[in-house]
TrEMBL record:
Residues 1-15 form the signal peptide. It comes from the Eukaryota. GO terms for molecular function: carbohydrate binding. InterPro entries: ConA-like_dom_sf (IPR013320), Galectin_CRD (IPR001079). It comes from Caenorhabditis tropicalis. This is Galectin. Residues 186-201 have a biased composition (Basic residues). Residues 38-171 form the Galectin domain. Transmembrane segments: none annotated. Residues 174-212 are annotated as: Disordered.
């Protein structure tokens, strides 16, 4: 369903999006691999209480003046993925994180502590709670970015910059309900004491226009 929706919306996707990772979707689970430089689609919109975690390593060298080196994490939303309710950027090795959102243009920047260090592994979690996005590194709350635009339909995320990912994971506050198939009877526990058959189921503003 998610990919069918993406097909319908593709002509309207904004030009700031990275290429869509083909055949990939994440829904309340972990996606293993390096998804640097591509957009990862979600199986359903991010909901209040959900969190997304990126785990990986930052490069040993980066030049803060070189835009491709700047570390950027973005969540894309609204039906046509043309708004970014959440965006964080660290121009490593600078020790400041820039926080922003995109609604037709980049809004005014907010500043917080550094989340990443050159040559070091990282694990950053962004949790949508109430009226804020809470950013954690290794389980420690580092910054709360206020929600400043619609968070409806957050369906994608991307990461670029001087680093890689080992995995991406979404933890859902309310995971989709699934039903488990009945376990087949064990041999010797069928009717009449004879073995039953087994059945197996196989399931700042304008200056930040250079952000992307």
């Amino acid at each position: 369903m998610g990919f069918f929706l993406l097909f319908l919306l593709f002509p309207f996707v904004n030009s700031l999006l990275r290429p869509i990772a083909p055949g990939v979707s994440i829904l309340c689970n972990r996606l293993t691999g390096n998804y640097h430089g591509v957009t990862v689609m979600f199986g359903r919109p991010l909901e209040n209480g959900d969190s997304i975690t990126w785990n990986g390593t930052i490069a040993a060298y980066a030049n803060s003046a070189n835009v491709p080196d700047n570390l950027k994490w973005t969540l894309w939303g609204t039906p046509s993925l043309n708004e970014a309710p959440f965006h964080m950027r660290q121009d490593v090795p600078k020790q400041t994180t820039i926080w922003n959102n995109f609604v037709g243009k980049w809004q005014y920047e907010l500043y917080g502590p550094a989340l990443f260090q050159l040559g070091q592994p990282y694990q950053v979690t962004v949790k949508m709670v109430g009226n804020a996005f809470q950013a954690y590194t290794n389980g420690v709350l580092m910054y709360s970015f206020p929600i400043r635009s619609s968070v409806a339909g957050i369906m994608a995320a991307d990461f670029v910059g001087a680093g890689t990912t080992n995995w991406i994971e979404i933890q859902c506050a309310n995971p989709p309900f699934t039903t488990r198939s009945p376990r087949p009877p064990r041999p010797g526990h069928g009717h009449g004491g004879h073995g039953g058959k087994h059945h197996h189921n196989s399931g700042s503003s304008s200056d930040e226009s250079c952000e992307h």
